[in-house]
Amino acid sequence: MKLAYTTAGNQSSPSLLLLHGFMGSGRDWQEIATELSHDCLCIMPDLPGHGESCLTYSDNDYTFTSTSASIVAVLDEIGLESVVVAGYSMGGRIALFTALEYPTRVRGLLLESASPGLVTDEARRHRVRDDEMRAGRLMEIGVERFVDEWYERPLFESLRRHDATLRTVKTRRRSNDARGLAMSLRFAGAGAQSPLWSRLQELRCPVRLVHGSLDTKFSSIASRMAGLIPGVSVVAVSDAGHAVHIEKTVAVSSIHRDFVQECWSHSEEKNRNV
């Protein structure tokens, strides 16, 4: 699938690819891209089934393998050899898979509220069942009602404290295509993903894990991941939940800016030592 994308910044600047979460789009990163555009080239694709990247309903277009290949095709189209990749939630799982499958294309990896996947077969079977039920519910009631139900989940309790922000998020989500989102649930959900825990030690680029201090589930996951990734750094953003970049835009923009600069310095030093 050819992914729709937008960019912000100068192509001569260090490049940062930003991958959104489920029901999001590249527009989710607009505020952060505005903050970073003087320092970075930000590339913001719509992942399969989201935004403007909903051109087909072929199963193969929604898999992790196909999605990663489509992301690399975006880099090729822009003319970028390698980028820092940042991903939130679903986008973080895709970012991690891409970094492992295309290590020479990824200078650094920033994972926000993301997981390497469910460990056991039983957990994945349960998640596949749950995501199939969610996909059916989505097709039954439509995107607008599904969005309202989605953000009533405990995972987004802290986001619900920000009324104006949540209204903006919901408005953006409602512009998605129901069938595309259902396909994403079925083929890019955590149950559909092969777990990547055993491959974390393969990562050789700088890695930063970001989570909200109020998100106990993903705080625990980040702690477990940190014990398996060489040279990893972990950042807990105070008074934030799962959607850290939405709740704390300024703080997350600073985290991204510092990490991109660190990754470019790391690459230049590595090249000098070759």
Your description of this structure?
The protein has one domain: Alpha/Beta hydrolase fold, catalytic domain (Rossmann fold), CATH 3.40.50.1820. Strands 1-3-2-4-5-6-7 form a 7-stranded mixed sheet, sandwiched between helices. It is an alpha/beta fold and 274 residues long. It is globular. The model has no long low-confidence stretch (mean pLDDT 95). It has helices spanning 30-36, 64-78, 90-101, 121-141, 143-150, 163-173, 178-188, 216-226, 244-247, 249-273, and strands spanning 5-8, 15-19, 41-45, 83-88, 106-112, 207-212, 233-237. It is built from 10 helices and 7 strands. Helix 1 (30-36) packs across helix 10, helix 2 (64-78) packs across helix 3 and helix 4 (121-141) crosses helix 5 (143-150).
As a percent range, the share of strand residues is 5-15%
Succession of helices and strands: EEHEHEHEHHHHEHEHH
| Rounded average pLDDT | 95
Indicate the structural class. alpha/beta
Total beta strands: 7
Provide the low-confidence segments as ranges: none
